[in-house]
Amino acid sequence: MNAKTSNKVATAVIYSFVGIVVLLLFFLIGYILVNGIPYISWHFLTSPSQSFLAGGGIRDQLFNSIYLLILTLIISVPIALGSGIYLAEYAPDNVITKLIKTAIEVLSSLPSVVVGLFGYLLFVIKFGFGFSILTGAIALTFFNLPLLTRNIEESINDVPDLQREAGLSLGISRWRTMVKIVLPSALPGILTGIILSAGRAFGEAAALIYTSGQSAPIVNYSNFNIFSQSSFLNPMRPAETLAVHIWKLNTEGVTPDAHSISNGSSAVLIIVILLFNLGARVIGNAIYRKITSGRRG
Fold first, then answer.
1. How many angstroms separate the CA atoms of 287 and 187, rounded?
2. Where is the ABC transmembrane type-1 domain (predicted)?
3. What is the pTM of this model?
4. Tens digits of per-residue pLDDT, 149-169?
């Protein structure tokens, strides 16, 4: 077999593997959407769930997922941003830095259920936070932090050194060069990583079963006092998220229409995650065009 023929064969094999992956992805997403979209309605999205009666919705679970995600990003983004800047710009190339990067890699490969059990033992039991939104947000921070840190580090490293040298040659300090020149250039990649990690956290269930809880108590959406137990903004109340709700329906669901609610909830979850991924690309391209007047691929 000559080089030209072997190249064609190798290319065909690679395209075949890629095609299989794409077909599997479309099959899974299509199956969930086809079976779930017919059950989605305004009543389904705005009604509370029912434990024993049919006709319940996912209002509280959907709000809990969004609230927990916002709280997670508030905690994790500043930590990941500082860590990413340090590793990309200030960390010396020595054994300690390599150890830190190895620890980040190990942490990113931990199963989410292990992170959930860690959060349960430390924050729920040891610190006495109980099952709460705050405990779930802290657990998701541990789950999300390695991905965010590596993304921010790589986005900063992708900025050409010429931009750093230009700032330093003008007498600008290293920190101001980072803040005023390097960070804005890396912003599209950083925002893309944040949005993608948000989609990953939004669909997480295993870590939240042991931290935020499996119950969705009735809350008062007109009560804005975060210290009130009945307030929807209270971060110390238990909060069953949408992903946990799906798991619960398929394992312990006793409602007559548990299968229908599970299908509809799964479709909503997939749609939201797809919107996160689409939003990451659109926002990243928009910011990149604004900064460079160009377009990313």
1. 8
2. 62-280
3. 0.85
4. 999 999 999 888 888 888 888
